[in-house]
């Protein structure tokens, strides 16, 4: 099975940028240590600081699903409740 690429776009409310950023940063080290994580890279838009993007690669969809059910993601969701304006997630496969 091919690896799974995840592209997650997070847009914070303008008055909650620093809160969302600090909570997203907390996810990096713990996620990179998870089984199946190939890379887990957080980006912030140079023109719009409220826009964050995670670019992730996982060994399999099953291992990514385990990640999605971990406590640190539940903690992030609770900490940023009401602070995120928009969230989109794309599951992708390398084709070339």
Mean pLDDT over all positions: 96
The amount of helix comes to: 25-40%
Contiguous low-pLDDT stretches (5 residues minimum) are: none
Distance between the termini: 15 Å
- Helix-strand string: EHEEHHE
Number of contiguous helices: 3
Oligomer: single chain
Major sheet: arrangement of strands: 2-3-1-4
Description:
The structure is a single chain. By secondary structure, the chain is of the alpha+beta class. It contains three helices and four strands, in the order E-H-E-E-H-H-E. A four-stranded antiparallel β-sheet has the order 2-3-1-4. Strand 2 and strand 3 form a beta hairpin. Helix 1 runs antiparallel to helix 3. The model has no long low-confidence stretch (mean pLDDT 96).
Keywords:
alpha+beta; four-stranded antiparallel β-sheet; 3 helices; 35% strand
């Amino acid at each position: 099975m091919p690896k799974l690429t995840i592209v997650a776009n997070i847009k914070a409310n303008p008055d909650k940028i620093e809160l969302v950023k600090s909570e997203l940063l907390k996810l990096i080290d713990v996620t990179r240590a998870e089984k199946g994580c190939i890379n887990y890279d957080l980006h912030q838009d140079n023109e719009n600081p409220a826009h964050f993007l995670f670019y992730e690669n996982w060994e399999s969809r099953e291992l990514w699903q385990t990640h999605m059910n971990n406590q640190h993601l539940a903690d992030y969701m609770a900490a940023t409740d009401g602070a995120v304006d928009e969230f989109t997630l794309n599951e992708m496969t390398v084709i070339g």
